Automatic annotation (TrEMBL):
SUPFAM superfamilies: NAD(P)-binding Rossmann-fold domains
Name of protein: CoA-binding protein
Lineage, opening ranks: Bacteria, Bacillati, Actinomycetota, Actinomycetes, Streptosporangiales
InterPro entries: CoA-bd (IPR003781), NAD(P)-bd_dom_sf (IPR036291)
Residue ranges of every copy of the CoA-binding domain listed in the record: 13-105
SMART domains the UniProt entry points to: CoA_binding
UniProt cross-references to Pfam families, sorted A to Z: CoA_binding_2
Annotated organism of origin: Actinocorallia longicatena
Amino acid sequence: MTHADFDVIRRLLWESGTWAFVGLSGNPDRTAYQQAELLQQRGKKIIPVHPSRAEVLGEPAYATLAEVPVPIDVVGVYRRTSQAGAVVDEAIAAGAKAVWLPLDVIDEAAARRASDAGLDVVMDRCPAVEWTLRHRK
């Protein structure tokens, strides 16, 4: 099953407002930081979700998705594949509208659970690359 639908990717990149990045630390060398910074620069509200951070990219961080006090449009799952399923389950429980699993984070069972719960799913895709490819309206 593919989770790279052109229309879903485009909608999430252009129409979503709030992205929670699970695994977002303060390390600018990490992919999650770079992707969150890019989306923040493009007008998205970034919510860092990391148990040991107080703030990232000028935004308050939360230890879990359940603690995020605002509606979440997209959950970026910046954890290892072995941990992705648990994060997807948290995203479903938190009422997120979509989950985005970046390059090389592939969990078909978790993607199916998210889809079955009504969430949009993008998997094995990079927001920065997709932004460049899909930037043509």
